[in-house]
Amino acid sequence: MENQEQPTPVVSSPGKAGSRRKTFFCVAFAVLVILGAGAFFLLQPPTSAEATAPSTAAPPPMPVEVTEVTVASADSEISVVGSLQSNESVVIAAEIAGRIDKIEFSEGKVIASGKALVFLDASVLQAQLDQAEANRALSQANHNRAEALLKDKAIAQRERDEAYAKWQLDEASMRL
Question: Residue 44 above 60 pLDDT?
Answer without folding.
Answer: yes
